[in-house]
Amino acid sequence: MKKFVPLMIIGAFLLNGCAYMQQWNPWAEEKPQEEVRESKVNPFLWQASLDKLGFMPIQSKNQDTGVIVTGWYNESQKAKEQFKLEVQILSKELRSDGVKVKGQSRKLVNGEWQTENMSLEMEQVIELSILKRARILYQQSFIQ
Question: Does pLDDT of 126 surpass 70?
Fold first, then answer.
């Protein structure tokens, strides 16, 4: 029995060493490395944009590129006028220049849609609305 105790201890060390040495074993199966994705856009600006555009149909959204595109939207009172927006989050930081809005509007004239770019002032009003919502979300993150 006394001969088996040292053999068991040596065996335990060898087995432990094999597990440790497996990381350098060229024949061992490679474990898939977990990919850690870090967002390229500010999460508060992203969520604020989705919140503010929630009443419109979202045509596409991609958080990796920070782009949200809506479909055409019209208010029920003005069925002959529609608009659509493209919002792009430009920064990882919560900054006033971290969001850019481009919009188009179209009107039904003589049975045909006439499309034009939205005014710069209107785009800026939407940007400010998104920034205000992002600031509120940021402040709420400290309360919770």
Answer: yes
